[in-house]
Write a structure and sequence with these properties.
This protein is α/β, with parallel strands linked by helices and 401 residues long. The protein is 40% helix and 18% strand. Pathway: Amino-acid biosynthesis; L-arginine biosynthesis; N(2)-acetyl-L-ornithine from L-glutamate: step 4/4.
C-alpha cells in the first residue's frame, strides 16, 4: 500500500472518463505547482477556474485546519455555523434572499432547473415546464443538466432526453424570442460561455432575455459557475451587466479549491422548495462551508476584484505580442481572467496540441473546443508568473510552427 502511484495507475484502475496529462501534481503554492519529479509548472488553468486564490492560500488553509478540529459533517438533518455564515455572506453580497448549498456546478444547476419547474408548476400549472438554453452552452454532467447544455456530444447516446428543452443561438435575441412562450418556465444562460469558446454575452442580449422572461412569466437563470465569484472583475458577472437574474448558480471559485457550490434566488422563488422536495447529503458540509466563507471573504475585497482588470490587461498584452510575432490568433476575447484566444492558420484546430506542448514547457493550460486556448488563472496571480508562463507558451507555440 506504500507504493508511489504512477500515471499508469490511472489507465489501470480508473474509469476512463478523462485523459489526464502524464505529470502527477503533488503540491502547489500560489500560481506554481510541482510534480512527482519536482518539476515546477506555472498554472494558467486554475483547476478550470476553481483555484481563484491560487494554491495553498494561507487564509483558506487556516479555515480548513480550524474547522477540521471541530466537526466535519453533520448531514442536512442538522445545520451548522459555517454554512449559515456562508449563506448570509452570499445574501449580503448579491441580489439573493435565499441560498442552497451543494458540491458542484452540476448540482447547483440541477437544483436551479428543478426549482424553476417546480415554481412554474405551483404558480401556473403543469404545462409550463419549457426550458430555453443556448447552443454551445455547458451546464453540468447529470442527465438533466447535460441535456439543457447546448452541446450534443455530451448528451447523445444515453437514451431519450428530458422533454421541454430547446436551444437558441447565443447572443441572438431573435432566436431566443422565437423559442420563449407562455409554456417556458425558465431561460438559462452563461453571461460568459466557458466551455463553448469563452464568449461574453452582449448587453442587449441579456437585457432582452430579462424582458422576454418578464413578459412570459419565466425565470431568468444565470449560470455563473465558471464566470462568477470575481473572475470578471465583479463578484458576479450580472453586476457588470446590471441585469439581475431570478436564480444564479455558483461553484468552482466559490470554494477556492474545496468542492462547493451554491444556488442563489429570491424569497418568492425559493418558496417552491419545501422540506423534502430537494436535497444534498453533503450540501453545506462544515469543512466546505468554512473554506468557502474564507474564499468569498477574500475575493469580495476591492484589492482582489480591482486587481483582476490589471492582470487581464497583462494577459492580453502578452497574447497580442505573440499574435503580432506569429499571427496565430483570429480573436482574443473574454472578460477579466476568463480569456480565450482563438487559433487560426497553422494552429487552427490544434488547441489540444498547444496544450500538450505547453505542458512539455511546464505550463498548465486549458482549451475550449478545438480552436480556443482558455486562460482561467488565479485572480491574484503574480505578474512575474504571467510573464514566465507566457514565455513558456511562446516556446510551446514555436515547437508547433
Amino acid at each position: 500500500m506504500s507504493r508511489t502511484p504512477s500515471r499508469q495507475d490511472f489507465d489501470t484502475y480508473m474509469i476512463p472518463t478523462y485523459a489526464p496529462q502524464d505529470a502527477i501534481i503533488v503540491r502547489g503554492k500560489g500560481s506554481r505547482v510541482w510534480d512527482q519529479d519536482d518539476n515546477e509548472y506555472v498554472d494558467f488553468a486554475g483547476g478550470i477556474a476553481v483555484n481563484a486564490l491560487g494554491h495553498a492560500h494561507p487564509e483558506l488553509l487556516e479555515a480548513l485546519k480550524t474547522q477540521a478540529d471541530k466537526v466535519w459533517h453533520v448531514s442536512n438533518v442538522f445545520t451548522n455555523e459555517p454554512a449559515l455564515k456562508l449563506a448570509r455572506a452570499l445574501v449580503d453580497l448579491t441580489f439573493a434572499d435565499k441560498v442552497f448549498l451543494c458540491q458542484s456546478g452540476t448540482e447547483a444547476n440541477e437544483a436551479a432547473f428543478k426549482l424553476a419547474r417546480r415554481y412554474a408548476h405551483d404558480r401556473f400549472g403543469e404545462d409550463k415546464y419549457g426550458i430555453v438554453s443556448f447552443r454551445q452552452s455547458f451546464h453540468g454532467r447529470s442527465f438533466f443538466t447535460v441535456s439543457v447544455g447546448g452541446q450534443e456530444k455530451y448528451s447523445n447516446g444515453f437514451g431519450p432526453k428530458p422533454a421541454g428543452i430547446e436551444h437558441g443561438v447565443f447572443n441572438d435575441l431573435e432566436s431566443a424570442r422565437a423559442l420563449i412562450n407562455d409554456k417556458t418556465c425558465a431561460v438559462v444562460v452563461e453571461p460568459v460561455q466557458g466551455e463553448g469558446g469563452v464568449r461574453p454575452a452582449t448587453q442587449a442580449f441579456l437585457e432582452g432575455l430579462r424582458q422576454l422572461c418578464d413578459e412570459h412569466d419565466a425565470l431568468l437563470i444565470f449560470d455563473e459557475v465558471q464566470c462568477g465569484m470575481g473572475r470578471t472583475g465583479d463578484l458576479y458577472a450580472y453586476m457588470q451587466y446590471d441585469v439581475v437574474p431570478d436564480i444564479l448558480t455558483s461553484a468552482k471559485a466559490i470554494g477556492g479549491g474545496f468542492p462547493l457550490a451554491a444556488m442563489l434566488t429570491t424569497s418568492d422563488v425559493a418558496e417552491a422548495f419545501q422540506p423534502g422536495v430537494h436535497g444534498s447529503t453533503y450540501g453545506g458540509n462544515p469543512l466546505a462551508a468554512a473554506v468557502g466563507y474564507a474564499a468569498v471573504s477574500c475575493i469580495a475585497t476591492p484589492e482582489v476584484l480591482e486587481g483582476v482588470a490589471e492582470r487581464s490587461r497583462l494577459f492580453r498584452e502578452h497574447l497580442e505580442r505573440l499574435n503580432q510575432q506569429y499571427d496565430i490568433f483570429s480573436d482574443v476575447r473574454g472578460a477579466g481572467l476568463l480569456l480565450g484566444a482563438e487559433l487560426k492558420g497553422a494552429l487552427k484546430g490544434r488547441a489540444r496540441d498547444v496544450m500538450k506542448a505547453a505542458m512539455d514547457q511546464q505550463l498548465m493550460m486549458l482549451v475550449a473546443g478545438t480552436d480556443v486556448l482558455r486562460f482561467a488563472p488565479s485572480l491574484i496571480i503574480e505578474p512575474k508568473d504571467i510573464e514566465d508562463g507566457m514565455m513558456r507558451l511562446e516556446k510551446a507555440i514555436k515547437t508547433l510552427l
